[in-house]
Amino acid sequence: MIELKNITKKYGGVTVYENFDFAIEEGKITCILGESGSGKTTLLNMLAGLTPYSGTISPSLTCSYIFQQPRLVPSLTVMGNLSLVCKDRAAIRSMLARVGLEGRENSYPRRLSGGQAQRVAIARAFLYPSRLMLLDEPFSSLDLALKIKMAQLFLDIRRSDGRTAVFVTHDVDEALMLANDIAILRGGRVVRRLSPEGEPVADLFARQALRGELISALISE
Amino acid sequence: MKNFKRATLLNIAWAAVAIVIIFIVWLIAYACVKNDYVVPDIGSTFAAFAELFTQSSFYSAFGNTFLRTLISFAVSFVLAAALASVSAVCRPFRTVFAFIISILRTLPTMAITLMLLIWTNPRVAPAIVTALVLFPMVYSQFVAAIDGVDPGLLQMAQVYRVSPREKLTKIILPSVGSEVGAQIGAGLSLGIKIMVSAEVLSYTLNSLGGIMQQARLYAEMPRFAALTIVCIITGLVFELLTYCLNMAFSRRRGGR
Fold it and tell me: Is A29 a domain residue?
């Protein structure tokens, strides 16, 4: 269990979290669902050690991070980008094959489509030997078909990998497709926590019974 | 690619139009003034221009000015890169240095040249003046380029614990390099202009500025105009070369 205890985070005079407690079950995909500006990305940045905070997060784990944008170095090829986090070229090639980018190792990021670039970001996250994977609305900029395809890809690789993942989104569909555990965040507090049955699956029509419950919890005062 | 070729051809066409306009203005000015000592005619200017390339003294003068410009630019470039790097990591230094840069920007070139002539000699003074004028510009370009490094990439490097060496060589330097690289041509072009001005003022022997000064003293207006054209062409070649190099790098990385 990864535990966040007594977390307080302020930006200038604005308090995002005050005495915030949260627990993340290891080996599962936890989804933080909340509207824009609810502090979702801040939570991930605290877990990644990218932003200072008061309180404790224990244990402190090495992280992989799939950002909203792929954040690939434009002057490096796909291989160059992945070599930043993993020196094993055979492992990189094998991971590229898994994400459907076989033979694209010498391509520069500008030559990749949005979906392909995000696949490289997913490959990078899985190649890095972390214990915790953080995902910040990584599929939000993709169209629906591609979003489902990417969610499937992520779930397939993650299933064999078994890494703990924390995923933030404002998209109910993404939460339903990807999570073992869903926490609804509002005003720096978790207002509802749900654990859908079964393993997550990249199917928009699965877990539909929970959809209404999630939406009403999101919009209720 | 087809669009790119079309755009390049269009740019060349517009450049040709600009040159034609310049010649028309020149012809009108010549017709109005009717004095070869004030505005030389195009024919004799181009005859003098062609003649320059038959004189070994011209090559030697051009080579000296060219080399001095390169050295001045290299000195200001290395110094600017080093000090901008310090500025990037040390806020107080950056703040203090911003005032020094403002002072350097306002330095009167002529006054500094004359002062340096007292301290040094006519070969060294133009080189120092050129470096002093170029330095604030190149420094500002470096600072802006360092500030412009994508914070998202730096954050990514932090999360994935990319080594400081790789962070510098694979993320920061390529980003800064492409930004600053695009400005090198403009810097060298400005450098040659300042160098020639300082050489004219310093009476530097065996230099473009020196032979321009001679041409002025002997009222050889076509030769003077021809030397001016040499300076213009040199500046344009610097800018064109940098542009082509940047395009080549950009295309290699899938930019076009």
Answer: yes
**Chain B residues inside the 8 Å CB shell of A69:** 152
Q: Flag if A108 and B254 touch (Cβ within 8 Å).
A: yes
Residue B256 has pLDDT above 50, yes or no: no
Which architecture, in CATH terms, is B41-252? Orthogonal Bundle (1.10)
Residue pair B208/B231 in contact by the 8 Å Cβ criterion: yes
pLDDT digits 0-9 by tens, B150-194: 999 999 999 999 988 888 888 988 888 888 887 888 889 899 999
Whether B84 contacts B230, CB under 8 Å: no
**Is any Cβ of chain A less than 8 angstroms from the Cβ of B157?**
yes
CATH of the domain at A47: 3.40.50.300
Rounded mean pLDDT of chain B?
88
Residue A10 forms part of a structural domain: yes
* ipTM above threshold 0.95: no
B157–A75 C-beta distance less than 8 A: no
B152 vs A69, A85, A128: nearest CB? A69
Contacts of A138 in chain B (CB under 8 A): none
B165 touches chain A (CB under 8 A): no
What's the pLDDT at B62? 94
Contacts of A67 in chain B (CB under 8 A): 152, 155-156
Picking from B156, B166, B253, the nearest residue to A74 by CB comes out as: B253
Specify whether the CB–CB gap between B204 and B122 falls below 8 A. Answer: yes
Please state, for a pLDDT cut of 70, what percent of chain B lies above it: 96
pLDDT band for B254, please (50, 70, 90 cuts): low
Where along chain B do its domains lie?
Answer: 1-34, 41-252
Chain A's closest residue to B177, CA to CA, is: A75
Q: Is residue A33 part of a domain?
A: yes
Domain span holding position A189: 1-62+133-139+165-221
A71 occurs within a structural domain = no
DSSP string of B90-157, one letter each residue: -HHHHHHHHHHHHHHHH--HHHHHHHHHHHS-TTTHHHHHHHHHHHHHHHHHHHHHHHTS-HHHHHHH
Q: How many other CB atoms are found less than 10 A from the CB of residue A6?
A: 13
Number of domains comprising chain A: 1
Give percent above pLDDT 90 in chain B: 45
